[in-house]
C-alpha cells in the first residue's frame, strides 16, 4: 500500500549521528540537512559567472565550504544548532582534519556525496560540454603544497 501525504510529512527521517572528536575533548552531534537546508547550502556554495562567449556557468565556490555545512549540521542534545551561519569563518579556523572528518559525516547524512559535489560543479556549460579548461592560469605542473585547499570537499 502506498504512503499517504500525511504519513510522509509526519515521518521522522532526518538522521543524527554522534561523532567522537578527541581533539576537542568530547563528542558532537551531527544532523543531516532537510531538503530546504540542503538547497540553501548548495545555493550558497555556487556562483553564476559570465563566460567570455556571453554564456553563463555555475561555479562551485570552495571557500570554507566544509565549515559552511557544519554550522548547519552541528546540534546540541535538544536538536538546536550550535552555530549560526555567520560562525562559519571561526569554525573554519579549527583543525582541518577534524573539520574534514565531520564534513564527511554531515555530507553523508545530508545526501551530499562525491556524486552530489560533482553534480554541483557539473551544472556549468563547460562541464556539460566536456571542456575542463579553467579561466585561472596555470603556473606550474607540479602540485603546490596547499593544493588540497583548491580541491572540492570530498565525502
Brief synopsis:
By secondary structure, the chain is an alpha+beta fold.
Overview of this protein structure:
With 155 residues, this protein is α+β, with helices and mostly antiparallel strands. It has one domain (14-127): rbstp2171, CATH 3.30.2220. Helices cover 37% and strands 15% of the residues. The chain is flat, with a radius of gyration of 18 Å. The protein starts with a helix and ends in a 26-residue tail after the last helix. Mean pLDDT is 80; it is low at 115-155.
> Which CATH class applies here?
Alpha Beta
Question: What fraction of residues sit in β-strands?
Answer: 15-25%
SSE pattern, N- to C-terminal: HEEHEEHEHHHH
Number of strands: 5
The largest sheet has its strands arranged as 1-2-5
CATH topology heading: rbstp2171
CATH superfamily membership? Phage tail assembly chaperone gp13-like
Please tell me what the overall shape is: flat
Low-confidence stretches: 115-155
Give me the secondary-structure category. Answer: alpha+beta
Spatial gap, N to C terminus: 35 Å
Total of DSSP H or I helical runs spanning 4+ residues: 7
Main beta-sheet annotation: 3 strands, antiparallel
Label the CATH architecture: 2-Layer Sandwich
- Write down the domain tally: 1
Helix coverage percent: 25-40%
Question: Which labels suit this protein?
Answer:
two-stranded antiparallel ribbon, 155 residues, 5 strands, 37% helix, alpha+beta
